Amino acid sequence: MADVAKRAGVSSQTVSRVSNGYPGVLPETRHAVHLAMDELGYRPNSAARALKLGSFRTIGVITFSLAPLGNLRTIEAISTSAAEAGYAVTLIPVGLPTHGGVENAFTRLEELAVDAVIVIMEVHLLDRAKVTLPRGVPTVVVVDSDAGDAYTVVDTDQADGAQRATRHLLDLGHRTVWHLAGPEDSFAAERRVQAWRHTLEEAGREVPGLLRGDWSGESGYAAGQELARREECTAVFCANDQMALGLYRALREAGREVPGDVSVVGFDDTADSPSYSPPLTTIHQDFAEVGRRCVSRVLDHLRTGEHPPGTSLVPARLVVRESTAAPRG
């Protein structure tokens, strides 16, 4: 730091203020200090700075799986938002939702020294593992809006999205809407099931039997083979776009056209959904906004020292493309 100060013609205190991002330094002085840092190859010692400031400038992220699209997009947004605020992200995947797996993840985070934790998993899995969150560490939970009485929660408004999908198909003139749901142990899947059923009941329509998949295209294909045999099925709401793709294949093989014979709505609005044949009508989830709000809540907690519970729901929206139409006849 003394070498940088000498090269830039300033005091060591000014170098410290520039390296720590403090205001009150003239732009030309800040530029001279950065230029001297580059010329000398100087890098601030983050460990020493953490000891001095009592902050590690790091947010820990725990997730069960990197496979789901939503998790990947949310983590990407968390990383981007954290970097813009001057924070690094430490990612710890948990292989299995067991007591040992979750406990080890939190133990590792405590050893790595983080300022806050974002948990991308459903709270019932946390409760099942009987894990106590690190004391004094601000924590935000993603993807479980029922947990707002105990945690700070950020989630997509799953119910509103499912209601919009079901209502869209009813408004087109379909007598009822079949639903290809996600796994029973998924909070998001169950929230969508409840909203689908409630929307049909509120409209005075018959509620067909529920079919389930595991989010994969293969499971959508298997359920689609059964739906294709049901002539009374003219509209299907799929709990995600990937299962809708499998449904497309099953309907096509059975000689049933989309949307001529069966209208299909997905959920997620993946990057590929506009390229489906036909382009898929779906519910858009703003994963980037979920990630931004997570970081915003964490930084609020760090600034205020308060960790109030509560839920922040990110709105979903219907994206109408070419996979839905009025029923024939």
Structure write-up:
With 329 residues, this protein is an alpha/beta fold. Helix content is 45%, strand content 16%. It is built from twelve helices and twelve strands. The strands form two sheets. A six-stranded parallel β-sheet has the order 2-1-3-4-5-11, with helices on both faces. The protein has a six-stranded mixed β-sheet with strand order 7-6-8-9-10-12, with helices on both faces. Residues 1-53 form the HTH lacI-type domain. This is LacI family transcriptional regulator. Keywords: DNA-binding, Transcription, Transcription regulation.
Estimated radius of gyration: 25 Å
What is the end-to-end distance?
Answer: 80 Å
Percent of residues in beta strands = 15-25%
SS field, number of helical segments: 12
| DSSP summary, beta strand count | 12
Mean pLDDT: 86
**Shape, per Cα inertia axes:** elongated
| Secondary-structure content class | alpha/beta
The largest sheet is: 6 strands, parallel
Binned, the helix content reads 40-55%
Could you give the order of the helices and strands? HHHHEHEHEHEEHEHEHEHEEHEE
- Trace the largest sheet across and list its strands: 2-1-3-4-5-11
Low-confidence stretches: none
Protein name: LacI family transcriptional regulator
Keywords: DNA-binding, Transcription, Transcription regulation
Domain HTH lacI-type: 1-53
Organism: Zhihengliuella salsuginis
